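Hi all, long-time lurker, first post. I run a small reading group and we've been trying to get comfortable going from sequence to structure in the token notation. Rather than ask abstract questions, I figured I'd post a concrete chain and ask someone more experienced to write out its structure so we can walk through it together at our next meeting. Sequence below, copied exactly:
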Amino acid sequence: MAGKTVTRADLCEAVHQQVNLSRSESASLVELVLQEITDCLERGETVKLSSFGLFVVREKGQRIGRNPKTGKEVPISARRVMVFKPSATLKQRINSPTKGKVPMASLGVAPMPGTSASTR
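-- Answer (accepted) --
Happy to help. Here is the structure in token form:
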């Protein structure tokens, strides 16, 4: 069931192919977007990407846990965790029988300027 893992390099190559930027410009663009998302999350902001999902930072309070090996109770410190909630559109695409091949136009998403719908 596990598929290919998509890396930053894969994302850069996809941007290069789809948007016709140079490879270095594509890499810079991908890094800039990822850095902006990271900065927003560090500040505790919610990041909403329409038709993709929501990245939310939640505060978890301190609690008592148990060491599974010894059974001894140990305190777990308060911390922040990031949660991803997929959008309904993403869920639909993931669960479609065509495995993500749902045309973007049928989901109400317009093609990017300079690209044709057939390249998506």
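A couple of things your group might point at:
The chain has three domains: 1-43, 44-86, 87-120.
The CA atoms of residues 53 and 87 lie 4 Å apart.
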